[in-house]
Design brief:
The chain is an alpha+beta fold. The chain has one domain: K homology (KH) domain (GMP Synthetase, Chain A, domain 3). A three-stranded mixed sheet has the order 1-2-3, covered by helices on one side. A hairpin with a 5-residue loop joins strand 1 and strand 2. The radius of gyration is 16 Å and the shape is flat. 11% of the residues are buried.
Length: 114
């Protein structure tokens, strides 16, 4: 069986990535609560049935602030996706910190010390 994502899944991933990026750029009211917050979306993964979406991102805020950001703005982003995407189901979005970026920084620092 082929585990590659289908064209439709890739299209949904790109659409969600674009919508979340646009939200983070245009709705900058979160900067009043988190003035130093910077986000970078590294990847979006959507389940095969298009009901769940994981948005992997890198941020420079603490874990507690990231949890508060999720609590305050995830529903608003979810509503934006529901209004914009045309599908039978709206994927349930979750933000996940991309640990691979931190791991690559650790490896780079180890290599620099050699």
């Amino acid at each position: 069986m082929d585990n590659k994502p289908s064209f439709r899944t890739k299209k949904f991933e790109l659409s969600i990535k674009r919508l979340v990026s646009e939200y983070l750029v245009t709705h900058r009211d979160y900067l009043t609560r988190f003035p130093s917050a910077r986000f970078e979306i590294t990847e979006v993964k959507v389940s095969k049935d298009l009901r769940f979406a994981k948005v992997f991102l890198v941020h420079n805020i603490t874990d507690e602030q990231f949890k508060e950001f999720n609590k305050l703005y995830l529903r608003e982003i979810q509503n934006l996706i529901a209004r914009t995407l045309t599908s039978k189901y709206t994927p349930k979005v979750s933000f996940i910190f991309d640990q691979s970026f931190q791991d690559s920084l650790k490896v780079q620092s180890l290599l620099d010390n050699l």
